[in-house]
Amino acid sequence: MSQYQRLFMIAAPGLRHTPALERAVAIAKATDAALHIAVFIEEGDLLGRMASGSALRQSMEQEAWTWLRDEAAQLRHDGVEVTCEVQLSRHVIKDMLEHVEDMQPDLVIKDVHHESALRRVFLTPPDWQLLRDCPVPLHLVSDMRCPLPKVIIAAVDTLHPDSQHTRINERVIRAANAMAVQCDAELHLLHAWDVAQTHIADFGAGTVTMPGFNSEVRRSAQLAFEHLADSRGVPESRRHFVSGPASHAIAEYAAHHRADVIVMGSSQRKGASGLLGSTTEHVLQHLPCNVLAVRGDTA
């Protein structure tokens, strides 16, 4: 398995020592990966603020640069290979994705934010666009109990044995295992079985509702799950075949077992629907947990 070589951390203007930065630095130290930290400042927002737009832009750029240079100097002193940049952009999402395409990092790391009153995660438009289009694993950090993850759960679907689901499962497990090995974390495997229906969206070409599954179908899915776990050498104590709608079951299990990272598949869909399904959305918005999203095939 290849070692992480390059990490790309997207920092928001005005934010400093955030959970995502702490996670990025911890992984860089653990893997000897180079870390690039970028701050994107949206030009449209600044230029629309009266006549002071230019002065405000310069102030924000200077403030971001001052912080980044000081932070980079300290990280280099601690042995981390780090580079940084501040970019003024009229098309932030496009520029973020172009950076990913140019850099080809092993991992993109970014903060998501809680709405404190509701304990929900607020996803910005760049978050959703990155989930849809980021070609490399995307680590969205919302809450962190320790800088390095200790429990990583790969959420897979073994009900549908078609080639697309198989490829997504492989990518999810590969990304989860890469992080687990390099961070010295436990790798767990999770499948959510809905007794009434199977609602698969993040792992396929659309929503599939199949009511009335009997015990034989459940047994078939569980056997496939066990076979997948055997092939990956996952101990029985780290295999979890749980019941309930996928979005709720995954979130509930992760919360009760203090998971550090949930690794899930995401996919593109042509048209306005964007990210397929509600599973990844629900886990991100309702669970104070970190998600590693692995993009699947386009549809």
Tally of domains:
2
Number of helices: 9
CATH topology of the largest domain: Rossmann fold
- Give the CATH architecture of the largest domain: 3-Layer(aba) Sandwich
The largest pleated sheet is described as: 10 strands, mixed
CATH class of the largest domain: Alpha Beta
Strand order of the largest sheet: 3-2-1-4-7-14-13-8-9-12
Strand content: 15-25%
Average pLDDT score: 81
Give the SSE string. EHEHHEHEEEHEEHEEEHEHEHE
Topology:
Layout: E1 6-11, H1 19-31, E2 34-42, H2 43-47, H3 53-77, E3 82-89, H4 92-103, E4 107-111, E5 113-115, E6 120-122, H5 125-133, E7 138-141, E8 151-155, H6 163-183, E9 186-193, E10 199-200, E11 208-209, H7 215-231, E12 239-243, H8 246-256, E13 261-266, H9 279-286, E14 290-295
Helix pairs in contact: 4-5, 8-9
What does this structure look like?
With 299 residues, this protein is an alpha/beta fold. The chain has two domains: 6-111, HUPs (Rossmann fold, 3-Layer(aba) Sandwich); 151-295, HUPs (Rossmann fold). Helix content is 40%, strand content 24%. The protein is built from nine helices and 14 strands. The longest helix has 25 residues, at 53-77. The chain is elongated, with a radius of gyration of 20 Å. Mean pLDDT is 81; it is low at 46-51, 198-209 and 269-277.
